[in-house]
Write a structure and sequence with these properties.
13 helices; about 250 residues; about 0% strand; about 80% helix
């Protein structure tokens, strides 16, 4: 599995996609920092980049979908057949794909996080709490890792069901956004169990750690929700990977 992860990471490193994505994100951070700095000098209204970071945290469960290339693309280039017929366990293939996507997401986060701090210093828009506010945001992103793993596992599972990554992304987002509405309706007519499910479903728990005041209870619930989702979707993905006939 380790060799499989290394191979996928090497594939990304030698393709322009990951570089283009990071350039776009870094450029956006610089432009936003410049606009905040300009506004501070002209009007005295100081804004920091903490709020945009928290906003992105709330939607990071969607953002990780941009790193999903793995299973369907492998099928396109007829290499997943070779992998599946090798000595590598199919469970290791699925887990390896999920871990690869998480690593790519974390690399992008660290790049953007460091750039955000540098831009804040350069344009004199450091938050009132200074570097401690950034440490707080960093902690929140680390707390979100189990939830992101659950989202990635879910998305990779969806890609096993459909042919085409675009359709996989569309179906994943439909489920992620429509389920809360459905769960509310079901809880009103059937029982509150669906309200409880909604609180722990996929990226819904990210709302807890992206708000201004983070409590220990919120962090614990986000972590536990992420672990639950990861176990469920990882199990289903591995099960389907083992049963799927790859031609």
């Amino acid at each position: 599995m380790l060799n499989l992860i290394k191979a996928d990471l090497y594939k990304y490193i030698n393709r322009p996609y990951i570089y283009i994505l990071n350039i776009i994100l870094v450029s956006g951070i610089i432009i936003l920092g410049f606009s905040y700095g300009y506004s501070f000098r002209m009007r005295g209204a100081k804004e920091s980049l903490i709020n945009p970071l928290l906003f992105m945290l709330n939607f990071s469960g969607i953002f990780v979908f941009t790193f999903s290339d793995n299973i369907i693309e492998k099928g396109k280039y007829n290499t997943i057949k070779n992998i599946a017929s090798s000595d590598i366990k199919r469970s290791s293939i699925f887990i390896g794909k999920v871990i690869t996507q998480l690593i790519l997401g974390l690399i992008t986060f660290f790049i953007c996080f460091i750039v955000t701090i540098i831009v804040s210093y350069v344009f004199d828009i450091m938050p009132n709490g200074g570097i401690n506010d950034f440490i707080d945001v960093f902690f929140r992103y680390m707390v979100s890792i189990p939830t992101l793993l659950g989202c990635i596992s879910f998305y990779t599972l969806i890609l096993l069901f459909v042919k085409g990554e675009g359709r996989g992304a569309f179906l994943s987002l439909i489920v992620a956004f429509i389920f809360p509405t459905i769960s509310v309706l079901l809880s009103q007519n059937i029982g509150h169990i669906f309200t409880i499910i909604d609180k722990y479903f996929l990226m819904n728990s990210l709302d807890l750690i992206s708000k201004e005041l983070l409590t220990f209870s919120d962090a614990t619930r986000c972590i536990s929700a992420g672990i639950i989702n990861t176990i469920i979707f990882m199990f289903l993905g591995i099960l389907m990977m083992k049963k799927k006939d790859i031609k």
